[in-house]
Amino acid sequence: MNVSAKKGLFSIKALASSHVLKGFIRKLKEYIIMPDEIRKDIFGREVIIAASRSKRPGAFMHKPEENQVCPFCPGNEHMTEKAVLCLPDEKNWQVRVFPNKFPVLKGNEFKCTKTNLYQRFTPLGRHEIMVDTRDHDKEYEDMGIDNIELALVAMKMRYAELIKLKGINYVTIFKNKGREGGASLEHTHTQIIASPLFPEVISREMDESENFFKEGKKCGFCTILEEERRENKRIIYQNRHWVCIAPFSSVWPYQFAMIPKRHFSELPEMTYNELRELARTYKKVFSAFKKLFKDLPYNMIYHNFPRSELWHFHLEIFPRLVTHAGFEFFGLNVNIKPPEEAARELRKVID
């Protein structure tokens, strides 16, 4: 090796050991993230690997930043992606929908790569955020009926649009409230995810509902409503179109469900009167919860199904008042609050 080559080698080693290069490499590693994908193993377990979401606020159990500027508040629209829907309009919005900056799924194609044991799929889908109200400190119990109604109209519109996309088989709609419920931002919002996958919970419910229908030629939830209204032990609240109950086999303390009296299976089938009464139901029931619990963390899940007489649209709300432990990972659940007691306590405080 000649002298010039030795000098060149020396200079490279010196650079490699320098703090500048080490800092650059560390920074580079932060941006080298595994590609997002959907995985499936030989046991049929499916998971969405969304490594890019690790960059979102509150992704891990870190202490939240204080005095953080809220990107969902009016005036901060530039901090989010461009809106796909604003109601009543873009300037005076009460409800605003836009793509999530840290999506669970994104892409326009669904390709599969197989190995001996595993399958990988490209993460086809859409992930949107719906800001339910422009008011930072308001929840359903604080919002006006008109505002809640507008949020339900926006949700219905986005569902109808997303379910038509090529390769999309299901549109999940859910709300996380509070850090215990998984919310990364305080400003109340709902998430809408269009996916090529049918959620396991929905698939199982469809199978069981179909089996029940084959035996009795009747919808399972219609039958449950008849029984619950007859017994009147677990009904929390009802109006012309909706019944709110504490389910017989509630998994979480104070868990409740909202079920339409008329049979329909998919959100777009909901009439205006049913939508309006659902908004009133939200207001009534969440106001009652606020009397029992000052600040209730929860998860709210919308159960949509393909249009059929077999399946019944409904919502489930899971208050996060306790923490599930190891036993529940076996699928064996323990509920320390009987649903009959929960329903009785809530009935007492409903106006």
Q: What's the arrangement of secondary structure elements?
A:
Blueprint: H1 3-16, H2 19-31, E1 37-40, E2 46-49, E3 85-87, E4 95-99, E5 112-114, E6 119-121, E7 126-131, H3 145-162, E8 170-177, E9 189-195, H4 200-216, H5 220-231, E10 235-238, E11 242-245, E12 256-260, H6 272-292, E13 298-303, E14 314-319, H7 339-349
Antiparallel strand pairs: 1-2, 1-6, 3-4, 4-7, 5-6, 7-9, 8-9, 8-13, 10-11, 11-12, 12-14, 13-14
Helix pairs in contact: 3-6, 6-7
From the 3D structure, determine the CATH topology of the largest domain. Answer: HIT family, subunit A
Q: What structural class do helix, strand and pairing data support?
A: alpha+beta
Judging by the overall fold, what is the CATH architecture of the largest domain?
2-Layer Sandwich
Under CATH, the homologous superfamily of the largest domain reads HIT-like
Tertiary shape: globular
Average residue pLDDT: 86
Strand fraction? 15-25%
Quantity of strands, as a count: 14
Physical arrangement of strands within the biggest beta sheet: 3-4-7-9-8-13-14-12-11-10
Count helical runs: 7
Taking the sheet with the most strands, its summary is: 10 strands, antiparallel
Query: Order of helices and strands, N to C?
Result: HHEEEEEEEHEEHHEEEHEEH
Written overview of the protein:
The chain has 351 residues and is of the alpha+beta class. It folds into 2 domains: 34-51 and 70-197, HIT-like (HIT family, subunit A, 2-Layer Sandwich); 201-349, HIT-like (HIT family, subunit A, 2-Layer Sandwich), CATH 3.30.428.10. It has 7 helices and 14 strands. The chain has helices at residues 3-16, 19-31, 145-162, 200-216, 220-231, 272-292, 339-349; strands at residues 37-40, 46-49, 85-87, 95-99, 112-114, 119-121, 126-131, 170-177, 189-195, 235-238, 242-245, 256-260, 298-303, 314-319. The strands form 2 sheets. It has a 10-stranded antiparallel sheet with strand order 3-4-7-9-8-13-14-12-11-10, with helices on both faces. A hairpin with a 3-residue loop joins strand 10 (235-238) and strand 11. Helix 3 crosses helix 6. The longest helix is centred in the C-terminal third of the chain and has 21 residues, at 272-292. The chain is globular. The termini are far apart. The model is unreliable at 1-16 and 28-32 (pLDDT under 50).
